[in-house]
Fold this protein.
Amino acid sequence: PSRSGRCRARASSWVGTMAEPDDLYTLRTLFWLGNYQRVPVEASSLNRLPEALRIEVKEFVYRSYIAMGQHSIVLDEIKDAPGTPVSLQAVKLLARYLSDPSSKELVLMTLGEWLADPGSAGNSSLQLIAAVIYMHENNTKDALKTIRHGTTMEQLALNIQIYLKMDRPDLATKQVRLMQQADEDATLTQLSLAWTYLATGGKKLQEAAFIYEELIDKFGPTTSLLNGVAVANMHMGKFDEAEKTLQNALQQGPNDPDTLVNLISCYQHLSKPSELIQRHINQLRSGAPNNPMVQQLNTVEGAFDRVAGTYALN
């Protein structure tokens, strides 16, 4: 079936909504595929929208700036005022959390208060952002609790990511089926299916690669989609193909952490020179010091240094 139409169940609305023209189809798709630079441009072309959609447009624009690391724009433009929608306040909270590690306790306390407040607890954007922050905290329990009754496509997609992080592809697959019932051809449904196939492995790996390649053919390459293809190929042992794809991804985003992590892994399997691998590790450390791979390397190297120091003292 064709995946080119704009008349579909509104992907950010409640699952099961009847198909209707979706004014934000392109905007949402750009964001979900990781084409963050184009989101503000697309947003500027959207006029005469109802108030609820205008707010949603701002959410995606500010979340795109966050994804690009431009937290100051979000912090400066979203005002701490009674009239600011709770969904935008939640986005600002995410920007603060990611840009200022010292604010973590305050952010988590504020989240708890908002989620306990009947006036804001039911806001789907707040629930989504809260789950994202909890995932950054590796707190899958509260992340799942926050959106376990979620009924938007984006909440279902995040549910899938949580289940996959918990190594429960069986539960993730059930969520995918819910999304397929709502809109089988939706971009977010296709992405979620690809994530699940990657986690399942085996023959599903090639199907995951096909989904990513089809999305690239339709919407153009992004670092996210290229990394998806590369990871599928790496799992299938096609490291030469994966390297070429990751080099393309690196041209799109020279400091993208996921690309660097996957390229380091790919180079190790290809037995590339250690200085080349170390160069990319240094680049990752410089651009993403809080990346899990960097933290793991620091832990291992720290343990090695402590043991080496013990022998030196002896």
